[in-house]
Amino acid sequence: MNSDERNSQLKIYFQLVDVLALITGWSLAFLTGLLLWFAPIEKDVDIVVWFFGLLKHEWGKLHLFMGVIALCITTVHLVISQRVLQSLHHRHNL
After folding, report:
1. pLDDT value at residue 71
2. pLDDT tens digits, 31-51
3. Spatial separation of the C-alpha atoms in residues 82 and 2, rounded to whole Å
4. How far is it, in rounded angstroms, from Cα 86 to Cα 38?
5. Per-residue confidence at 14, pLDDT binned at 50, 70, 90?
6. Beta bridge partners of 90
7. Phi-psi region for residue 53, left (φ > 0), alpha (ψ -120 to 50) or beta?
8. Spatial CA neighbour of 15 closest among 71, 87, 80, 73
9. Sign of CA dihedral 18, 23, 26, 28
10. SS3 assignment for the chain
11. How many CA atoms lie within 13 A of 49 on its CB side?
12. Whole-angstrom distance, CA of residue 77 vs CA of residue 72
């Protein structure tokens, strides 16, 4: 295996990891948001252990954390695929 084939395989591997991380991050942010959307609305809901042993405000913190992680992964994804995005922009302007 020469270095070009190895670089090509590494590029494909990193693109796969990038896309999987992107899908996972946004899916978890969406899922925690959905759980918060359907959480019971009561005055003392923070006292009640709601789902997986977490309180509602803990789910809110988890949702915020997942959203920040998803935004960071999206930023990395855009930086990695900047060359592809520039070529698409160039084609659009022709």
Report:
1. 96
2. 999 988 887 766 665 555 667
3. 27
4. 41
5. confident
6. none
7. left
8. 80
9. negative
10. CCHHHHHHHHHHHHHHHHHHHHHHHHHHHHHHHHHHHCCCCCCCCCCCCCECCECHHHHHHHHHHHHHHHHHHHHHHHHHCHHHHHHHHHHHHC
11. 3
12. 9
Q: Are 31 and 58 in contact (CB under 8 A)?
A: no
Of 6-15, 21-30, 42-51, give the lowest mean pLDDT range.
42-51
Rounded to an integer, what distance in angstroms lies between the CA atom of residue 61 and that of residue 67? 10
What are the structure tokens assigned to 20, written together?
Answer: 């999987």
Task: Give the pair of three-digit tokens for residue 53.
Answer: 């042993």
pLDDT confidence of residue 46: 55
- pLDDT (mean) for 74-88: 83
Q: How far is CA 36 from the centre of its chain?
A: 18
Residue 69 in contact with residue 63, Cβ under 8 Å?
Answer: no
